[in-house]
Amino acid sequence: MTDAARAGDGPPARHVRLGVDVGDVRVGLARSDLDGLLATPVETLPRETAALSVARLAAEEGVHVIMVGLPRSLDGREGPAAAKARDFCAELLTALDETGSAARIRLIDERLTTVSAHQALHGSGRRGRKHRSVVDQVAAVMILQQALDAERATGRAPGEALAAADGGEDTEKRNR
Asked: Which of 116, 117, 130 is closest to 41 using CA atoms?
C-alpha cells in the first residue's frame, strides 16, 4: 500500500485500532476493541525495536489505523519531542511495508498526556519508579481513547493523516 493511501480518511466502522506513545527509551502501546469503544493497554516496548513490533502486531491483527501521539507545546507548536514522534512514524511506515500491513498512521495531538498518565497512576496508589513500567502504556491508552471518542463524536477519522509525500505534515492542517 502506498504512503498516500495509508493517510486516507474514513476508517471502516469495525476494526482494531492501535495507540502509540513514543518516548526516548520506551514506547507505550494500546489497542481498541473491534467497535472502537474502549482503549486498553497492551505493552511497553523498547524504543529501538518498537516500530517493527507495532508493525508486526498491526499485520497479525489486521489493524487499519495506528494513532501515534504527537506532543505539541501548549501553544500548538512542534518541538523536539514532536520531531521524534515523526521520526518514529517514518520508521513505522518502513516496518509496515516490510510486514505487509495496510495500516494507516494518524497523528493525535497529545499535549500533557504523559503528565496526565503520571497523575492517574499516582492517584491510583502507584508511586515513583513503579510508574516507569506502565506510564507509557497509560499514555498510549489516553491517546487512543481520545482518538476513539473524537471518531465516534464526529464520524470522521481523528487527528492528522500522516502523508510521507509532504514530509509527514497534513497539507490541509499546515495551511490553516
From this structure: 117
Q: pLDDT digits over 135-165, tens only?
A: 889 899 999 999 999 999 999 999 999 865 4
Q: Which residue has the cell 489486521?
A: 62
Q: Which grid coordinates are listed for 130? A: 513503579
35-81 pLDDT, tens per residue? 999 999 999 999 999 999 999 999 999 999 999 999 988 888 999 99
104-109 and 160-161: which strand pairing?
antiparallel
What cell numbers appear for 173 in the block?
492542517
H/E segment holding residue 21:
strand 17-22
